[in-house]
Amino acid sequence: MAAQSDAPDVASPAEAPSANGNANGGDLRERLKQTQPFESGAQEAMLSLMVAGAAVREEVEETCARFGLAASHYNVLRILAGAPAGGHARCDIIERMIDRGPDVTRLMDRLEEKGLVRRHRSEEDGRVTLHRITKEGRALLEEMHADIRAVQHRFADQLDEADQHALTQLCAKVYDLKS
């Protein structure tokens, strides 16, 4: 006969209901074709964030591809569209990028080849190359605007304003995991 405990009956993290209300993270486990419960709520939350981010990124990538760009190209064009008149140095662009890929120089080369970005030497420091968006780059952003907004609207259709705000706040808590 097992000894009776006075401890409250609490589910382990792997057995606790997931954020979507399913015990053991059913929807995410099905999406990942995972047969075992998650190790913890933290593992499920991290994987959920990664899967959701990948889904949004995929839709943005598909939209950008219709215009001959990758999402990283679009991101740089948006950064340069908001830059001061002189433009931004490569290091300033990298600091502002959503996905800080390792080869921004080659990315900038491609944008320049397409006539979307122009480079010039800084007048203040000749060692620094500045990048500016061209009229063609601005025109392409304008052309893409409705399609990108449509992606945002599909995202908004899944989450009401309160959920969007809550998601923004939660994501802000994990931006700087390295620090």
Question: Mind explaining what this structure looks like?
Answer:
The structure is a single chain. This protein has 179 residues and is mainly alpha-helical. The protein folds into 2 domains: 14-65, no CATH class; 68-166, Arc Repressor Mutant, subunit A, CATH 1.10.10. Helix content is 55%, strand content 7%. The chain has helices at residues 26-32, 41-65, 71-81, 90-96, 104-113, 135-158, 161-174, and strands spanning 88-89, 117-121, 129-133. It has a 3-stranded antiparallel beta sheet with strand order 1-3-2. α2 packs across α6.
Based on the model shown, name its key terms:
179 residues; mainly alpha; Arc Repressor Mutant, subunit A
SS-derived structural category: mainly alpha
Main sheet specs: 3 strands, antiparallel
Query: Share of helix among residues?
Result: 40-55%
Number of domains: 2
- Report the uncertain regions: 1-25
- Our measurement of the CA-to-CA distance between the termini, rounded to an integer number of angstroms, reads 50 Å
Global geometry:
elongated
Task: Give the number of helices.
Answer: 7
CATH topology of the largest domain: Arc Repressor Mutant, subunit A
Supply the CATH superfamily name of the largest domain. Answer: Winged helix-like DNA-binding domain superfamily/Winged helix DNA-binding domain
Strand content: 5-15%
How are the SSEs placed, and which strands pair?
Blueprint: H1 26-32, H2 41-65, H3 71-81, E1 88-89, H4 90-96, H5 104-113, E2 117-121, E3 129-133, H6 135-158, H7 161-174
Antiparallel strand pairs: 1-3, 2-3
